[in-house]
Automatic annotation (TrEMBL):
Keywords: Menaquinone biosynthesis, Methyltransferase, S-adenosyl-L-methionine, Transferase. Transmembrane segments: none annotated. InterPro entries: SAM-dependent_MTases_sf (IPR029063), UbiE/COQ5_MeTrFase (IPR004033), UbiE/COQ5_MeTrFase_CS (IPR023576). Pathway: Quinol/quinone metabolism; menaquinone biosynthesis; menaquinol from 1,4-dihydroxy-2-naphthoate: step 2/2. Methyltransferase required for the conversion of demethylmenaquinol (DMKH2) to menaquinol (MKH2). PANTHER family: 2-METHOXY-6-POLYPRENYL-1,4-BENZOQUINOL METHYLASE, MITOCHONDRIAL, METHYLTRANSFERASE. S-adenosyl-L-methionine binds at T58, D78, N106, A107. It comes from Desulfobotulus pelophilus. GO terms for biological process: methylation. This is Demethylmenaquinone methyltransferase. It comes from the Bacteria.
Length: 236
């Protein structure tokens, strides 16, 4: 399947944008901030590095990059204008406007020249894209040689009693809490989309198959999120 994203995703994120940050913190018990911090730490950015954050939403990864690397420059792209609006306001309030630019773009058609960025991040975004090969190819194209990729995504814990407990929370309780604060079906779609996402070793293989090297993955918080890292090969 080529050049496809899941059709309702854009309008879904436009609709939940005002509640997105609040529900993220509540439903993950603030673990999401820790996961983003670790993802950014994995980038090994050069001084004044250029970072592209794809599916940047309300800008949390972009802001974390600047917290860790105040001399970096971040471009965030997302196709939900409402998420971007909230992100721009947060960035303005934190005084990071000179270091971060958020603009509308589709992950499948990134409006950048090849070899533009030292690092590319995507947090909780790749799961919402149907044509993941095309997205990974776009990331590869836009990265400089030796540039680093960090993909942060939700997962489910491995088989065992914890998995049963987690799935009870994830499939039954989370949609109820999400529904209390947002009338949208997003918090029913969330567990379904996580369950449909490939397991960590399969997705790591997919990243590798698009040309990335040193591909690795690391589970966070008992396996409820996974950080995938890889690198575009340096020029030989
Ligand atoms: C779960 S949010 C993650 C936002 C942010 N990265 C974070 O860490 O909170 C997923 C975001 O991906 C965006 N998105 C999904 N598919 C996209 C695509 N094909 N192109 C651009 N943005 C996309 C949505 O609009 C939404 O803002």
């Amino acid at each position: 399947m080529k050049n496809k994203e899941i059709p309702f995703v854009q309008s879904m994120f436009d609709a939940i944008a005002p509640r997105y940050d609040f529900l993220n913190r509540l439903l993950s018990l603030r673990q999401d901030t820790l996961w983003r911090r670790r993802a950014v730490r994995s980038l090994q950015l050069p001084e004044k590095g250029r970072v592209l954050d794809v599916a940047c939403g309300t800008g949390d990864v972009a802001m974390e990059v600047i917290r860790q690397h105040p001399r970096a420059w971040v471009t965030g792209v997302d196709f939900s204008e409402k998420m971007l609006e909230i992100g721009r306001e947060k960035i303005r309030v934190c005084g990071m406007g000179a270091s971060i630019e958020l603009k509308p773009a589709n992950a499948l058609h990134l409006p950048f020249e090849e070899n533009s960025f030292d690092a590319i991040t995507i947090a909780f975004g790749i799961r919402n894209i149907q044509d993941r090969e095309k997205a990974l190819d776009e990331f590869y194209r836009c990265l400089k040689p030796a540039g680093r990729l960090a993909v942060l995504e939700l997962a489910t814990p491995p088989e065992g009693p914890l998995r049963k407990l987690y799935l009870l929370y994830f499939k039954r309780i989370l949609p109820l809490i999400g529904g209390l604060f947002s009338s949208n079906f997003a918090y029913t779609y969330l567990p379904d989309s996580v369950m449909a996402f490939p397991g960590p070793s399969d997705f790591a293989e997919k990243i590798q198959s698009r040309g990335f090297q040193n591909v690795a993955f690391r589970p966070f918080t008992l396996g409820v999120a996974t950080l995938y890292t890889g690198q575009k090969p340096p020029i030989a």
